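User: Hey, my collaborator sent me this sequence without any context and asked if I could get a structure. I don't really work with proteins. Can you help?
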Amino acid sequence: MKIDEAIGKLKELQARQVAYNQAMSMLSFDGSTSAPKNSFECRGRTLSFLSGEVYKSFINKETDDLLNYLLENKDSLDQITFRIAEEGREEFDKISRIPMQEFMEFMQLQNDANHVWETAKLSNDFASFEPYLAKIVDFKKRFANYRDPQKKPYNVFLDDFEKGYSMDDYDAFFSVLKENIVPLIHEAVPRGKSINDGFMKISYPVDKQRLLSKKLVSIMRLDPDSFAMAESEHPFTMGINKKDVRFTTHYYENNLASAFYSTIHEGGHALYELNTADELIYTGLDSGASLGMHESQSRFYENMIGRSREFTSYIHPHIRGLFPSQFADVTADAFYRAVNKPEATLVRVEADELTYSLHVMIRYEIERMLFNGDINVAALPGTWNEKYREYLGVTPPDDSTGVLQDVHWSEGMFGYFPTYALGSAIAAQLAASMGKAFDYKSDVSQGDLSRVNAWMTDKVHRHGQLLKPKEIMEFACGEPFNPRYYCGYLISKYSE
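Assistant: No problem. I've predicted the 3D structure and written it out in structure-token form, which is a compact way to encode the shape of the chain:
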């Protein structure tokens, strides 16, 4: 085989895989948003069938030989082709060890479990979800053993979401956060009790909140012809391709901050997907370099921008215009303090910046216990409640605000949660580097994110998976990742 012929075969293979994945993504998005409730069973069968087609078209001797040949001749490949082959080799080695029938069964289980989880959350019924979750955990343990029987299962999953990371790495990372942030929490939370945020929890009509979300995505400069915003039980973002990015938010009439920050958070994810380089379309590289890097974008826009004094002051008049009676006596300063109030709460997605990482650590420790064999699925509600009492001094009144609050486990995404804290820390370091390049806070105070987005696009977004996370950090910041930027940012902000 000649190198040009091999490259052609790789591009053909990649185009087929991308087409299947886009079709499956659109089915999944529809299932989480506008599809009829009873459609889940047939949709699950369709997703299972398509996953089998993806498996067969990719996992075969021809693909194995092709990837080997290309990587043996990597000096003849351009950067994009090499990265496609490199990522393909890793994905092949991961999936080929899993029997196709089990791979297909798991795809259907994910679909069904997600449907059951949503119903269980709304009705506070962990018992109905428990058998599905138990099956997911059993599948994940078997898959981890197929892939690397010498490695602890949870380390296999952690590496899936952040390559190279293990429990040792996250233990060291969280140790730094505990050392620096927990003492600050003990100081700030009692002081925060004097902050009035009651006005954020009165009635805010959902139709007006939707208008506020539209204003937010306009400020973020999301291309209206390339993204769609919908509603789901748990907000999420799905990049079909850089010309088709979907994300959702969730509205609560008596909680203005919930949709406000969910929209900005998911909008940060969407910006990453929308701003990857054009030449990466249909290569499989047109997405985030890692989950930690992806979360750095959502957390940067949600917190460094959305919770900043500059942004809250800018958006305050617009909120007052939409809700004149609710905000009649609310100053810009009162709004800023309310959305940054440090408080021990129950729900991760509505937590303040300071206590947020404790919510993540709770999930990390529970997942580690589950896959190390220290607890089983039946023990999850009780363990969850114990951890919340231990870390935050609060106890969930029900499973809907406790163990059922997140969608991730219903989709088998064990190992994802730690990337939220990691992403928050990366975001702080990126913000520090951006601040050295120009006064972005001045731009934010005017509601102008054009230079902010341009800097992020140049340093992070456009590279997609062409560069690895460590390479992006060196390119953007001129130094490796350092969690102490995050600690310094929080200490500076909450010492105020």
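In plain terms: The mean pLDDT is 96. You can pass these tokens on to your collaborator as they are.
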